[in-house]
Design a protein that fits this description.
about 250 residues; alpha/beta; Ubiquitin-like (UB roll); Rossmann fold; 3 domains
Amino acid sequence: MKKQKKRRGNSRYYFFLFIIIGTLLLSFLGIKEILGKMDFFKIESIAIKGNINLNEIFLRELSSEFIGMNLFSIKKKKIEKKYENIVRIKNIKVKLRIPNQLLIQFEERIASYYLKTKEGDFIPIDNEGYILDNEGFYVSEDVPLIDINFQSKNLEIGEKLENEFVSKVFSLHQQIQEINPELSKNISEYYLSDNEIYFVEMNSGCRIVLGDENLKDKIIRLKFLNDNQGFQNIAVLDLRFKNQIISRQR
């Protein structure tokens, strides 16, 4: 008998909790509906934040139809849909700034490399492997080339490129950035030769190959060499072999 009373007590608790939550929800919806009809909350301006390369005026114009609409009557999904076909937009957040401003915050996809195709086209790609539009070069995207054996027509804008060589370049460049950030800024190109990844130091034109093993130690040695004598008189620098640096002079 005691157990049955406990169950009835729990049932009453959940019933009253349901009533309270339902009442609060209905109250909120009612208040939102009232606010959604007030002229005081009509949108007067649209603020754009987070864009780096994308034109602010262009982004604002895409949502200009919402000017004059009530802030609380707009569905955020409808605003986000306006930007869904822009490849360089990675994420978007829509916020309401009471009483009358709409804030749209963007996270852009930025080129980390340019893919150099068979035709000699430069096609930007971000650090996740997504192919970006190449309608114009952006000043902030002074990034290395990756020379690939692809035709331009086979690279779909907005698609993620799955390629073993490109993935290895991403990994190698990230390690160089972590250990020797100054060198990473001076790499102009990555290319494949005899199944080995080479990169070019742009100030000297020196071509460097590290191999696949003990990359961390080799990058540290490379930094020591660069700090002490540089690469100016070296055409090719080969660090593939253990505890050896083979160089070919100009």
